[in-house]
Amino acid sequence: MAKATGDKALTVTVSGTDFNFNVSRKAYNDYQNSLFNNKNKVGGANNFLVEVVDEGQRKDLIEFIASTPGCELELVGAIVENYAPDLELTVKKSAS
């Protein structure tokens, strides 16, 4: 079965443990939108991580997050940085 456009599998090694994440465009967009609509940035990061981690690792990730204060933002930062493509953008000023 072909993956939907925008789906990406990522593995993040944290303290010697590999966590596998399956990021869809919808999950990514929902997370980005939550940054603007919610003052709770850590909660949004936590929800995103728990949603996209492999189901078999969900319990381990939740336990890791509970025992490692502040890790949500570092983890989500690594995933977002590796999910989104690097674009070469140039903005040209109009001649008017």
How would you characterize this protein structure?
It comes from Gilvimarinus japonicus. InterPro entries: TAC-10. This is Phage tail assembly chaperone. Helices cover 50% and strands 15% of the residues. It is of the alpha+beta class and 96 residues long. It has a single domain (8-83), classed as rbstp2171 (2-Layer Sandwich), CATH 3.30.2220.10. It has a two-stranded antiparallel sheet with strand order 1-2. A hairpin with a 2-residue loop joins strand 1 and strand 2 (17-23). Helix 1 packs antiparallel against helix 2 (41-52), helix 2 (41-52) runs antiparallel to helix 3 and helix 2 packs across helix 4. The longest helix has 13 residues, at 25-37. The N and C termini lie far apart (51 Å). The relative contact order is 0.17.
Compose a concise summary of this entry.
InterPro entries: TAC-10. The chain is of the alpha+beta class.
Oligomer: single chain
Write down the Rg: 16 Å
Provide mean pLDDT, rounded. 91
Elements, N to C (H/E): EEHHHH
Q: What distance lies between the first and last C-alpha atoms, to the nearest angstrom?
A: 51 Å
Q: Quickly give the structural class.
A: alpha+beta
Shape: elongated
Strand content: 5-15%
In the CATH hierarchy, what is the superfamily? rbstp2171
CATH architecture descriptor text: 2-Layer Sandwich
CATH fold-level topology: rbstp2171
The tally of strands reads 2
CATH class category: Alpha Beta
| Whole-number total of structural domains | 1
Tell me about the biggest sheet? 2 strands, antiparallel
* Major beta sheet, strand line-up: 1-2
Low-confidence residue ranges: none
Helical content band? 40-55%
Helix count from the secondary structure assignment: 4
Pfam families: Phage_TAC_10
InterPro entries: TAC-10
Organism: Gilvimarinus japonicus
Protein name: Phage tail assembly chaperone
